[in-house]
Amino acid sequence: MVDRLEELEKIRQKIDKISEKDAEAIISEAKKKAEEIVSEEKKLIEQEEKVAVLKEISRFETAERKRVSERRFAAERRVLLRRNELVNELFSEIEEELSLYCKKSEYRGYILRSAEEADEKEKLTEGVTVYCKAEDLELVKELMKAYPVKVQEDKSIKIGGIMLKYPETRTYIDLTFDTKLSEEREKFAATAEMQL
């Protein structure tokens, strides 16, 4: 019986040794898996942090670009408004100068030259109507006596000059300061250059 007990004790010890080895192997493997999981979680957290930081940087950059764009737009708008003010002032001064010129004796020569220029382009014949502003009506009638034309007031002519209507050919020759100034304003707006 003692042999039997000794044998049983040896078997128990063997089983304990095997169980202890298995337990150590299981614990070791569990530790490795735990370390792998912790390592993967750390990597995921780092990636998530990087993504979060990149998103925040992107959001900041987008907001900053928007602020810069808004400031640039506001500055360009102020410049454009100021430029328009200056252009309006310039053309108001030019209009005043032209209005003053229309009151001088040289204006009479301008009307005659305009009529001659129109006559060269298309003969001033009967049926042609010459339009002018109300203040110039008597002057233009006097100067157009040499031509068989009608002279009439045109309320759209504010500054001066003449406009001729040829009913036979359905054409107009516009030699008014109003139109020339308007054309120059358009050119000036497009190119910032002017020629009167």
Task: Note the beta-strand portion.
Answer: 5-15%
List the secondary-structure elements in sequence, H or E. HHEHEEEH
Low-confidence stretches: none
Roughly how much helix do the residues carry, as a percent range? over 70%
What is the helix tally?
4
- C-alpha termini separation: 136 Å
Class of secondary structure makeup: alpha+beta
User: What is the number of E strands?
Assistant: 4
Coarse shape: rod-shaped
| Strand neighbour order, sheet with most strands | 2-1-3-4
Overall description:
The chain is 70% helix and 10% strand. It has helices at 2-101, 106-121, 137-143, 177-191; strands at 129-132, 150-153, 161-166, 171-176. Strands 2-1-3-4 form a four-stranded mixed beta sheet. The chain is rod-shaped. The N and C termini lie far apart (136 Å).
Task: Summarize the SSE layout with pairings.
Blueprint: H1 2-101, H2 106-121, E1 129-132, H3 137-143, E2 150-153, E3 161-166, E4 171-176, H4 177-191
Parallel strand pairs: 1-2
Antiparallel strand pairs: 1-3, 3-4
Helix pairs in contact: 1-4
